[in-house]
Amino acid sequence: MTSAEVPLSMTIATDALTLHWSDGESSVSATRLREGCRCAPCQSARLRGEAAASHDALTLVDALPIGHYAVQLRFSDGHERGIYPWAYLRELASDATS
User: Fold this and answer.
1) Whether the predicted pLDDT of 1 surpasses 60
2) Residue ranges per structural domain of the chain
3) 3-state SS record for 20-57
């Protein structure tokens, strides 16, 4: 996959984000998406070794396109700071299936 690849469409459900690519589809759970947030406060907390809060009851609320390269996700815990590039989402989905 090239970094410029954009999904054909996406399906937002409360429990997962599914991306439809030219070569198939990939899905990432809301919990995995929240745990993989790359915003500065989340990355900083991980670098400090802080224990992650449980996100088991978390749901995905919305996904807002950011240009042609990414999507910003909103979660039921109020978090909406992370920007998820398409390549990163595909990587998260791949990690979830391996």
Assistant:
1) no
2) 9-97
3) EECCEEEEEEHHHHHHCCCCHHHHHHHHCCCCCCCCCC
Token digits for 93? 């989905």
Dig out the tokens for 79 from the structure. 């978090």
pLDDT at residue 87 is higher than 90: yes
Cβ contact 28:95 at 8 Å: no
Residue with the larger pLDDT of the pair 60 and 98: 60
Q: pTM value?
A: 0.86
Indicate the fold that domain 9-97 takes in CATH: NE0471 N-terminal domain-like (3.30.2020)
Tokens 């090239």 locate to 2
43 vs 97: CA distance, rounded Å = 23
CA–CA distance, 20 with 9 (Å, rounded to integer): 5
- The DSSP element (H or E) to which 72 belongs, if any, is strand 70-75
Is residue 56 pLDDT above 90, yes or no? no
Residue 9 pairs with which residues in a beta bridge?
20
